User: What shape does this take?
Amino acid sequence: MPTTEPTTKYQCPGERGLISQSVHLARLSAFYPACRECVHRHDTGQIPPRTVVHLKETENRIHRVSLLTDEGVRGIYLNELNRERAAAYAAGLAGQLWRSSPLKAREGLHAPMDISSVRLGPMVVVGFDERPSSPDIAVGVVRALRTMSCRVIDVGQVTRPCFSFAVNHMQATAGVFVTGAGCSPVWTGLEFESAGAVPISVGTTLNEIEQLADGPNPRPSRQAGQLRAFHAALPYEAALGKHFHALRPLKVVCGCCSDLVGDLLTRTFEKLPCELFFTKTSLRQRGPLAAGDADFELLADEVRLHRAHLGLLIEDDARTCHVLDERGEIIAPLDITRLLLRYMQTQHPGEPVVVEESVAAQVPGAIACDATSESMSRTMTDNSAVYGGSAVSGRYWFRESAPTCDAVLTLARLLQLLSRSDAEFSRVVESLERSAAG
Assistant: This one.
C-alpha cells in the first residue's frame, strides 16, 4: 500500500529550503536550537513522551540577544551563525562603509556622467581560518559584500596575522575574517578591520555593524562588486623573514593547532642556524594557561626532552602565545611584556611604548590604553609607539607598517633577545625581576 505524504511543509527558522517530516522530528529529538522558534515545534509525531517533556522544558530557554564579543562576532555554527546571518553582518559592514563615503548623484536626470568622478566601491579583503565551517561562512560574506557593490579581494585560507597584513598591504577600506578563534571547534565567527588593518572592537563601529545587520541595507548601486584573488602568504612571509637574523644557534619548541602556522615556521627555520621542534596541539577553547593543561604539559615535556632554549604555545588565532623557559615553566605575560619592552627600547631608544591600562602603573613611562585590540592599535599609531604589551592576554604588538600582533613575530623578537648573550631564559627573567625590585 502506498504511504501518504504529509501535507505539512516544514521549514526551519533561518533556512530557505523545506525539510521532510523525518528531518523535522530528528531535529526536535536532538534539541536543535532553531526548533524553539519553529511554528511546528508542537508537531512531535512519534517522539517518545519523555523527550517531549524535555522539549517543553527547553522551549523557553533564553537565546543570546547579541553575538558580539569584545573583538568580533561568535556563534555556534548553523545554530547561531550560518551563511545567511554572516551575510547580514557583512552587509552591515558594507552599509557602514557606504554611509561613511556615499556615492554622488548626477545633478539632473539627463546630465552626462563624468567618468572621472565615478568612485569605485569600498575595497574589502576577505579571508578565513582552518575550521571546516569557515569556507561556508566566507561564501555568504563575499556574496553580501558584492551585492552591496564592494570590491572584494579574496585571500582564501590564511592565518589571522597574514590577513591583517593583506588588509594593510592592499590599502583596503576594510576586512572581514571568518574565524572561531578562542572558542570550541563547533563555533564560528567574524572579525572586522578598518583601513590600515585597525581591528574593530566592541564599543565603536562593531556595535553599529550589528545594528545595521538587523535592519535593511539598500543596495547603493545596481552593479555587483568585483571579485579577485590575492595570494598574501608570499609577501607576508617575506616581510616576516627579515626579523629572523643575527641569531645564535638556539633550540625552539613550538606548539600550535594550525597547520598553516606549522608550515610557516618549518619554512622559516630551514634558513636559520636554529633548530625547530614543532608539536601539533588540539583545537579547543582554553582559559588562562596553567600547569595541568594537556597542551602545556606536552610542550613542557618536549622542551625538557630536546633541551630547548624556549618553548612557545601558539593559540589558534596565531597571535596569542604563551612562553616557556628552558625548564618548561611558564613565564608570566607581564614578564614577557617587560622583557620585550626593554629590548625594543634598546633598539629604538627614547621611542614611546604602550601597555594595557591594568598594568600601566607597573611599567613606568609607558602610555596606557584600553584592553581591546582596536584601542591598542590606535594608541600605538597615534603615538608612533614601537611596542605594545599586556599582562594577561598573551598578545604582543610591534610597530611595522601598521601595528602588528603576530605570534611568529613575537618569537623572532624573543630569539633576538636571547641571542644577545649565552644566558638561559630563566636567568634573563630573574635578572629582570631583580632590576624591577631594585
Q: What stands out?
A: The CA atoms of residues 104 and 110 lie 15 Å apart. The longest helix spans residues 83-100.
